[in-house]
Amino acid sequence: MKRLAGRIILLWGWRRALVAFLAGALAVLAQAPYDFFAVCFVSFPLLVWLLDGATGEASDGWFRHLRPAFAVGWWFGFGYFLAGLWWIGSALLVEADSFAWALPFAVVGIPLALAFFYGFATAVARLLWSNDIGRIAALAFGFGLAEWLRDFLFTGFPWNAVGYAAMPVPLLMQSVSVTGMVGINALAVFVFALPALLAARRHIRLGGALAAVLVAAHVGFGYVRLAAKVEPATRAIDVRIVQPAVDLSEKWDPSVPDRIFATLMGLSAKAPETGHAKPQLILWPETSVPFFFAERPDALTALGEMLGDGQTLIAGVVREEGGSAEDADRRYYNSVVAIDDKGQIADAVDKVHLVPFGEYLPFADLLGRLGLKQLVAGPTTYAAGNERHPIALPGGIRVLPFICYEVIFPDLVAVDATSAELIVNVTNDAWFGDTPGPYQHFRQAQIRAVENGVPLLRAANNGISAVVDPRGHILDALAIDARGAIDVHVPISNRAIVSSSQRRINGLMIMLLFALAAFTMNVRQRLRAN
Question: What are the CN hydrolase domain coordinates in residue numbering (predicted)?
Fold first, then answer.
């Protein structure tokens, strides 16, 4: 191990960049749908050894001194995000005649940009670097900080945060309900990087003890929580989730909306599955309704006739607001609407966090003059909603809707005990086909249920549609590209172990403890050197 570490430390130039790139790409195998988290015990020790050798001359100033470390992290991040996000390009091939030209910009450009976060992580870590276990703590702090910033900087895109690698199954998901993603990201990197100590043979016992304690706590807490007696449900709801599997090439084709609507209606109106009651809530995916309700009042009438007493439909729609279709002030929203058993729209919630370049064009005036336009989405550019609020169902149960990738943001999906009793996620992942993208998206939605201690209802156009309980178990699901509907009886009982604000504090405290440990080791090494 010492010989291997020595060779890695001495790498230079393109060889160092290549190993960093490959180490990052390898780490993606720890994410869904592969869930082979053991690879991180290879990728992160390699990163530690590369950083051991990434030294600059102190006399060159702090920027040049940290540049080699930043480069190592950047190449690691580029490999990680390129291997983990290549499937984004599939969305541009749906309308290849119009958008195939943008394929390299999406597939390569997004990883190029996101890699700066990991370059920042390794540069911060190198500031606190030492020759012992302190450098492992420094790396954990650097990545914890970078992943936290990735949650909100430049509109945010915390996809495939490192911490998800430590949570492939419900047993290993429970810790996030206490630490939040901020804490689990830092803890995961610390444990994954500890095998790097085997090369230097310093602090091996301490590192082994810490790894054993943290892994035991992670697994043990999961076991205790899953084994604990579930509180009797105070209420329950019968839900039907519809997955129409509509081909995107037909999604906005003006000749087929009636057929699409008929498919949705047929799946919604069928008799309940054996052993299930008539659903109280029916859930359709994002933008599933292929027309504007204002132009098709007959559709609302048909829905009112289809829905029985006390039933509610929550459907993804494109909602219009403003003047006539030719009016420049007319706005369109990616929304969900709640339709009651009389065929009336009882409530609506607009998407607040839009996808840049997908649902709107940032700096539209400037980029528009350059001939650029939004790359995917639908029939129009969307406006962002002002706020999100729960939808109250008959019987008083409240559901909080999140549209598409809104569900990947932990702080956005912070469901307080007084806010809602169900999380609803509607999406259309058909843009990405049967690639790792939909599986990664579902995993992140699954973790939101565990974090907040409430069930998750998820309707996706072509999958993965599912019902997830508050502990991360999948009660029922529809696979990718399956067409159908599932009926699930959903008990409502659990709540979050700690509040969302306390999770945030806990995560930041974990991150700062790593920073303090790294700083202490760094100072002690400097004092010894003098």
Answer: 242-492
Residue 93 — φ and ψ, nearest 5°?
-90, -10
How many beta carbons lie within 10 A of that of residue 1, not counting itself?
13
Mean pLDDT score, 444-464: 96
Catalytic residue among 147, 251, 351, 406: 351
Integer angstrom CA distances of residue 190 from 47, 151, 307, 477, 515: 12, 20, 53, 34, 12
Collect contacts of 308-312 with beta carbons under 8 A, ≥24 apart: 308/278, 308/341, 309/341, 310/280, 310/341, 310/394, 310/395, 311/278, 311/279, 311/280, 311/281, 311/282, 311/341, 312/280, 312/281, 312/282, 312/338, 312/339, 312/340, 312/341, 312/346, 312/393, 312/394
Helix (H, G, I), strand (E, B) or coil at 283: strand
Separation CA 160–CA 40 (nearest Å): 13
Q: Check residue 460 and report its DSSP letter.
A: E
pLDDT above 70 coverage of the chain, percent: 91
Q: Kindly report, residue by residue over 255-303, the tens digit of the pLDDT.
A: 789 999 999 999 999 999 888 899 999 999 999 999 989 889 999 999 9
Phi, psi (5° rounding) for residue 335?
Answer: -135, 170
What distance in Å separates the CA atoms of residue 336 and residue 358, rounded to the nearest whole number? 18
CA dist., res. 516 & res. 326, Å (int): 60
Q: Which of 12, 60, 125 is nearest to 515 (CA)?
A: 125
C-alpha distance across the termini of the chain, in Å: 30
Q: Is the pTM of this model over 0.70?
A: yes
Helical spans, DSSP H, in 10-109: 13-27, 40-52, 62-85, 90-93, 96-99, 103-104
**Other residues' Cβ atoms within 10 Å of the Cβ of residue 55:** 14
Residue 404 is a catalytic residue: yes
Catalytic annotation, pick one of 40, 147, 251, 286: 286
**Calpha distance 347→356 (Å, rounded):** 26
DSSP-assigned states of every residue in 337-372:
EEE-TTS-EEEEEE-SSPPBTTTB-TTHHHHHHTT-
Q: Which helix (H) or strand (E) holds 111?
A: helix 110-127
Strand 345-350, strand 391-392: pairing: unpaired
355 Cβ neighbours under 8 A, 6+ residues apart? 377, 404, 405
The pair of three-digit structure tokens given for residue 513, joined into one six-digit string? 């403890």
Ordered domains of the chain (ranges, CATH): 2-227+502-529 (no CATH), 236-493 (3.60.110.10)
Q: Which two tokens stand for residue 435?
A: 């690639």
For β-strands 465-468 and 456-460, DSSP reports them as antiparallel
Q: Is 40 a residue of the active site? A: no
Catalytic-role residue among 404, 406, 421, 451: 404
307: CB partners within 8 A, 6+ apart: 282, 313, 339, 340, 341, 343
- Which residues lie below 8 Å from residue 95, measured CB to CB, with a gap of 6+? 376
Output the six-digit token pair for 244: 């129409």
What one-character DSSP code corresponds to residue 107? I
Peptide bond into 33 cis (omega under 30): yes
